[in-house]
From TrEMBL:
Record keywords, A-Z: Cell membrane, Disulfide bond, G-protein coupled receptor, Glycoprotein, Membrane, Olfaction, Receptor, Sensory transduction, Transducer, Transmembrane, Transmembrane helix
InterPro entries noted in UniProt: GPCR1_Superfamily_Member, GPCR_Rhodpsn, GPCR_Rhodpsn_7TM, Olfact_rcpt
Protein name: G-protein coupled receptors family 1 profile domain-containing protein
Boundaries of every G-protein coupled receptors family 1 profile domain copy: 48-296
Organism in which the protein naturally occurs: Sparus aurata
Gene Ontology CC, one term: plasma membrane
The keyword Membrane is assigned to this record: yes
């Protein structure tokens, strides 16, 4: 009860600053080249994820439930990078480090929502592989279009609800002294530590968020693959095991790319210089959305075949148009 009384703060006035200041990197010369590099990463991410969504939409052979989750992953990657990178470039390349209070909380909401959805998308894709390998005869009964749409909707509702609670609790804090955020964006942990009143509710939700949105999804993925490996070792030949795990390579690559930098930051946060923490977190935010479409195109046979087919159709249409033009000219 004390948690909610403290959080709601009825009949209490709060000191809210007009703006926050995003510190970014400290004492690194020519750091603007790094932000230019992030811009090019963003451009590749936009092109890659747009292409994946277009291929899935245009090819009716990719309307399987699994590709609904892949489409959602590409959408989240595109939306998340578009929420983060342009604002980041505006702050640091054009030196707009003063960000209004409400804009900062909005920035935080979209960044955390998209980063959290990335982990839950990986959970959904892991569940798809688990059922496909362990229960292949029941796959089409268990993993249906309706189930996948319901799973994605539940992920969105859960993430938005949790992040809204975190943002709502920040509005119950007073900021009496510093408004300098030691990060590259409006980071939840950095913001609530600036408060001068009771910040325990925000501390509690800040502790719970990594558990709910990082550690539990990662544990589910690890235990799922351990179970897959155990099941295959009992019933499959070596060739069948290799064939089954080949269907998981794209997903495992995404898991490694997303979780390893985050785990390094969480486990070694006290030993990492603030600049190193910002580099690690910024790269782990923008690199997976860039690499995800590349990995899926290169390591997923169905998407590779679909891309080849779409290019073949386009080339045939171009050749047909040229032929018609030549005939018309004659």
């Amino acid at each position: 009860m004390e948690f909610f009384n403290s959080a709601l703060g009825k009949n209490i006035s709060f000191v809210r600053p007009a703006y926050f200041i995003i510190s970014g990197f400290i004492g690194i010369p020519n750091i603007k080249f790094y932000y230019v590099f992030l811009f090019f990463v963003y451009v590749v991410s936009v092109l890659g994820n747009t292409a994946v969504m277009a291929v899935i939409y245009l090819d009716h052979n990719l309307r399987a439930p699994k590709y609904i989750m892949v489409f959602n992953l590409a959408f989240v990657d595109l939306f998340g990078n578009s929420a983060l990178v342009p604002k980041l470039l505006d702050i640091f390349l054009f030196d707009h480090r003063y960000i209004p209070y409400n804009d900062c909380l909005t920035f935080l909401f979209f960044c955390y929502t998209c980063l959290s959805m990335q982990t839950l998308n990986l959970v959904g894709l892991c569940y798809d592989r688990l059922i496909a390998i362990i229960f292949p005869l029941h796959y089409h009964l268990k993993v249906t279009h309706r189930f996948m749409f319901s799973l994605i909707a539940s992920f969105w509702v859960f993430v938005i609800f949790v992040v809204l609670i975190a943002v709502g609790l920040l509005t119950r804090l007073s900021f009496c002294k510093s408004v300098l955020i030691n990060s590259y964006f409006c980071d939840h942990g950095q913001i609530f530590r600036l408060a001068c009143n009771d910040r325990s509710p925000s501390f509690d939700i800040g502790t719970s968020l990594p558990v709910l949105l990082v550690w539990l999804p990662l544990m589910f993925i690890l235990f799922s693959y351990l179970y897959i490996a155990y099941a295959l070792s009992k019933v499959a030949t070596v060739q069948e095991r290799v064939k089954a795990f080949k269907t998981c390579t794209a997903h495992l690559s995404l898991v490694a790319i997303y979780f390893i930098p985050i785990l390094i930051t969480f486990t070694m946060s006290s030993k990492i210089h603030p600049n190193g923490r910002i580099i690690n977190l910024s790269l782990s935010s923008v690199f997976p959305p860039m690499l995800n479409p590349i990995i899926y195109v290169l390591q997923t046979q169905e998407i590779k075949e679909s891309v080849k087919k779409l290019f073949k159709i386009r080339n045939c249409n171009c050749s047909s148009n040229l032929s018609n033009f030549s005939v018309g000219g004659d």
